[in-house]
Design a protein that fits this description.
The chain is α/β, with parallel strands linked by helices and about 375 residues long. The chain is about 35% helix and about 15% strand. The protein has an eight-stranded mixed beta sheet with strand order 1-4-8-5-9-10-11-12, with helices on both faces. Strands 2-3 form a two-stranded antiparallel sheet.
């Protein structure tokens, strides 16, 4: 599989939903495979909150491949022998695209809290600029899960002629209060951590030890990404063998798992980027900019493929089904699949074998 990683610089302004302007800005992206002569084989991949443009393959020295490596590659569901795959990093991220710790031109100082609030609409508008800059004006498909699924749905409505097929997994038509409440734990944990310094921390300040506030907030995130059944299957009531049962801070295996994963995450993810991306997720609403959700959905021309997971307690299956029922009544082309899964929201990253056949079928 041919992999290329690049950062594209834009000097033209990006007009944001808030009324503010981002100028200049950069977008990091990765491509896999090769584009055919008539550009009919381009597939766009959209990532979730903690993801990046590195969706597949290995970088030199990596222990783990890209976050959707099981789905993208030679002979896989998104077959890079047939398709030219583009995976972009959203604006606001900390993995190469312009975000809160980028230089606030013409100054060399980071934006920090002066960075504008960005939305899912803003993210896809920036991606449209990238596609145009690459000379790509039509896509075979757009595929994304969670926040990536939000982007896929927003593309379908805002740019109805862009793609033949839209595949959105584990997403929603508007972020519900339950999810916003989970996100609030992370937001407050970060803001109240003294080392956060109201966003005035030094670049790479947490590379060695991480930020406790982000680690704690990420625990709430992890709980929402899993499900009671998946936790039971993975950990049960197993106790850490070298911790004493009657030791106050002795841990169950599920506690150790949360500590380990969230501490590592807080060393690798910028807390300001986390706050900005969570804000984009919280403000996501397909209705915004249109009179009603019905009016927004009526704009869709692509073939829609909606996939939810039975045990997803972050974005409930009924939320995706609501879009499907609406499109059905409108006579629009759409199919909906609810995957039997006990893994929770993260099933779209883990249980690929339960839906990769569906994606392969759509692309064929």
């Amino acid at each position: 599989m041919k992999i290329e990683t690049e950062i594209r610089h834009f000097s033209s302004p990006l007009y944001l939903e808030s009324g503010r302007i981002l100028e200049p800005y950069e977008i990091a992206y990765e491509t896999y495979g090769e584009m055919n002569e008539d550009q009919s084989n381009v597939v766009l991949i959209c990532h979730a909150l903690s993801g990046s443009h590195h969706a597949a393959g290995f970088y030199e020295g990596d222990r783990k491949p890209g976050w959707w490596d099981g789905l993208i590659g030679d002979g896989k569901a998104i077959d890079t022998r047939k398709y030219y795959v583009i995976s972009t990093n959203v604006i606001g991220s900390c993995f190469g695209s312009t975000g809160p710790m980028s230089e606030n031109y013409p100054s060399e100082a980071p934006y920090r809290l002066k960075f504008p609030v960005v939305t899912i609409k803003d993210m896809i508008r920036a991606q449209m600029h990238l596609l145009s800059d690459l000379g790509i004006y039509h896509l075979r498909a757009i595929v994304g899960g969670s926040m990536g699924g939000m982007q896929a749905l927003q593309f379908a409505i805002d740019y109805p002629n862009l793609a033949d097929d839209i595949i959105a997994l584990a997403a929603t038509y508007a972020t519900r209060p339950w999810t916003i409440a989970f996100n609030k734990v992370a937001v407050e944990a970060i803001r109240r951590d003294p080392r956060f310094e109201n966003g005035n921390y030094a670049k790479d300040a947490f590379k060695e030890e991480g930020l406790d506030g982000l680690a704690i907030g990420r625990i709430a995130g992890h709980i929402s990404y899993l499900s009671p059944d998946s936790m039971e299957d993975k950990f049960g009531r197993n106790y850490v063998s070298n911790d004493g049962l009657f030791e106050l801070f002795g841990r169950y295996e599920v506690e150790r798992y949360m500590e380990y994963n969230t501490t590592n995450f807080s060393k690798n993810f910028d807390p300001l980027s986390y706050l900005y991306i969570v804000k984009a997720i919280n403000t996501f609403n397909l209705t915004r900019g249109y009179d009603t959700l019905y009016d927004a959905v009526l704009r869709i021309k692509a073939r829609m493929h909606l996939i939810s997971f039975k045990s997803d307690y972050l974005f409930f299956p009924k939320e995706m089904e609501h879009i499907y029922r609406m499109m059905q009544r409108n006579g629009q082309e759409c199919n909906y699949t609810e995957i039997e899964s006990n893994y929770g929201h993260d099933a779209f990253l883990v249980e690929l074998d339960k839906f990769d056949g569906l994606i392969k079928e759509v692309l064929q």
